């Protein structure tokens, strides 16, 4: 379980990116983090794993306090937090398998990582993960030969290879088409359910968040202004988070995209039959 208490981040300029944010994410729950650009979503995720140092507040994972840890202890604790990035953060010249195994770097010696000689148990785990994300046949391909959706699947497998207790996901569908976006979100939800993994997903696509997230937290100007189930994300609440907008039209556009996708799949099935 992740517990964040009164988390605040103030930059040297005096700008406050987060203001006393508190939340708890229990085992197996997937939380969608929404809000306008500059609301503090990415800052919150990066404060949790201390890629960004919080100014004040506390962060605890499974009871272990993460704030205030020294470099060595922090490296050890970060192994329990899997990070999935918007731009994939893969090493393009390495193979899919090598990228997945890079998730084990915190567990092996320097020379094992330098020579890329991983224990057989790590290799077996990597193959299982590649099979789970549907990329077994691409294990020996270079990462730069993959599509965007395939790269994101590699990123998911790499994060899981850490055997994490928490997933932090930063805009996983921002660079993907609507169909691939839903496939990736469905995969993340299924994996978290299978493993009992809590996850925080920073996501800009509100209809996608409403479709897949179990719980949604809305941030505005660094503060939590909504925390509840997707069905409570009314037009009034969305206006509180984002400001005035024609939310009915937005939902209709999202529904039209889903209908068009379903029709395209049906046509393809008829052609293939």
From TrEMBL:
Q: Which Pfam families does the record cross-reference, listed alphabetically?
A: ABC_tran
Q: What is its EC number?
A: 3.6.3.28
PANTHER family registered for this protein in UniProt: AMINO ACID IMPORT ATP-BINDING PROTEIN, PHOSPHONATES IMPORT ATP-BINDING PROTEIN PHNC
What InterPro entries does the database record attribute to this sequence?
AAA+_ATPase (IPR003593), ABC_transporter-like_ATP-bd (IPR003439), ABC_transporter-like_CS (IPR017871), ABC_transpr_PhnC (IPR012693), MetN_ABC_transporter-like (IPR050086), P-loop_NTPase (IPR027417)
Classification via Gene3D superfamilies? P-loop containing nucleotide triphosphate hydrolases
Give the CC-aspect GO terms.
membrane
EC category: hydrolase
Q: What is this protein called?
A: Phosphonate ABC transporter ATP-binding protein
Q: Which residues form the ABC transporter domain?
A: 2-246
Q: Which domain of life is it from?
A: Bacteria
Q: Which GO terms describe its molecular function?
A: ABC-type phosphonate transporter activity; ATP binding; ATP hydrolysis activity
Q: Which gene encodes it?
A: phnC
Q: Which PROSITE patterns match?
A: ABC_TRANSPORTER_1, ABC_TRANSPORTER_2
What keywords does the record list, in alphabetical order?
ATP-binding, Cell membrane, Hydrolase, Membrane, Nucleotide-binding, Translocase, Transport
């Amino acid at each position: 379980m992740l517990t964040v208490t009164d988390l605040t981040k103030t930059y040297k300029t005096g700008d406050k990116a987060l203001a006393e944010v508190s939340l708890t994410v229990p085992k197996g729950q997937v939380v969608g983090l929404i809000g306008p650009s500059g609301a503090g979503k990415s800052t919150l995720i990066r404060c949790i794993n201390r890629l960004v140092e919080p100014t004040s507040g506390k962060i605890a994972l499974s009871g272990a306090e993460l704030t205030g840890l020294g470099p060595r202890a922090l490296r050890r604790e970060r192994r329990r937090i899997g990070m999935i990035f918007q731009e994939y953060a893969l090493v393009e010249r390495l193979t899919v398998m090598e990228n997945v195994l890079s998730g084990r770097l915190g567990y092996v010696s320097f020379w094992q990582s330098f020579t890329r000689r991983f224990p057989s148990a790590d290799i077996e785990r990597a193959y299982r993960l590649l099979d789970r994300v549907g990329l077994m046949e691409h294990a020996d391909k270079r990462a730069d030969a993959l599509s965007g959706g395939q790269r994101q699947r590699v990123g998911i497998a790499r994060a899981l290879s850490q055997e994490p207790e928490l997933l932090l996901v930063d805009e996983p569908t921002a660079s993907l088409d609507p169909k691939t976006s839903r496939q990736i979100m469905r995969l993340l939800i299924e994996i978290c359910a299978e493993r009992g993994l809590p996850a925080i997903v920073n996501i800009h696509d509100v209809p996608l968040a409403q479709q897949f997230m179990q719980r949604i937290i809305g941030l505005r100007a660094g503060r939590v202004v909504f925390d509840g189930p997707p069905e409570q994300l009314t037009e009034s609440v969305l206006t509180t988070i984002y400001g005035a907008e024609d939310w009915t039209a937005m939902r209709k556009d999202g529904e039209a995209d889903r209908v068009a996708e379903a029709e395209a799949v049906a046509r393809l099935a008829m052609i293939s039959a």
